[in-house]
Specification:
This protein has helices spanning about 5-25, 45-70, 85-120, 130-135, 135-140, 145-150, 150-155, 160-180, 210-215, 230-255, 300, and strands spanning about 270-275, 280. The chain has a two-stranded antiparallel ribbon with strand order 1-2. The chain contains eleven helices and two strands; from the N terminus they run H-H-H-H-H-H-H-H-H-H-E-E-H. Strand 1 and strand 2 (about 280) form a beta hairpin. The longest helix is centred in the middle third of the chain and has 36 residues, at about 85-120. It is elongated, with a radius of gyration of 47 Å.
Length: about 300
Amino acid sequence: MDRNMVRWASERSTCVILLTNILSIDRPKRVKCPTRRRVVQRRSAWLSIAILVLAFYSTAFSAIYFVVACIKPHYGNRIGGKGGLAPSTATLLSALFAKTIELSFVTVFVAFLGQVLSRKALGKNAGGITIADMSMRTWVMQPGTLITHWENVKHSALTLLGVIAMTTTFVAMFYTTAAEALVSPRLTAGIPETRELTGEVNTKFANSTYLFSNCQSPVPLAVDPVNRGSTCMQIAFSGRSFHNYEQYLGRWTDFSTGQGSTDMLLRPPPSGTWYDNTTVKGSWIESYNICLLYTSPSPRDRG
């Protein structure tokens, strides 16, 4: 065969192949592409069992958290007491369980959403799904897309499935925050309880009954059971007052025999003793010249 004939035949076959490809693009043929696995999974599959376990976990612990938030139990010494759980550990465990409830809830809802959309897409009379319906999964997992892709939200938010997805999105966003505010243990005023306190207590200060019963007096209690304690304390207070007054006069004596002064601010301050082992010193609040009080009105009277 001539070389030119071979070249013409090859060019003709190339043109036929190109023409066939162009026709196939214009008129696509129905190609059967069967799936390698079944779309519908059995109830005994591991994925179905895992979703069912997560659903039970989320429901049970959400109910427990709801009851705790309503009752607000008083933990007592079980948290923060001796041998109890530390408050920081209790708060950490509460936040950890709240986060696992949130994650399991989102996982179960995404699986539910995928099942509903799959039935609508594969059903004969379901009507199919749109791109806006497919973006509902992103709402729950990435709530920021409600703002960045608002054009998809306005097409699906008014449907029944869209309302459910929007509600789930807001619940998932604020669940951990709500659990931290309502369920996490915190230090508050508990319920008033009647407790019996035992131990050594010092009741000497401002306890007249204790002072009356422990005052040292030669009078027996059987002789004067009513006024024995009060009479003893009056004598004791009188003796302490005389002692304090004697000490105060001694300071005035030292002040007058020494340098002395006519300035009222330099006069010795009053002093006393408390239980014979503590010295209490006072201070002058108002300073007036005693001699001038009888000749002229005081500054208070002038005002």
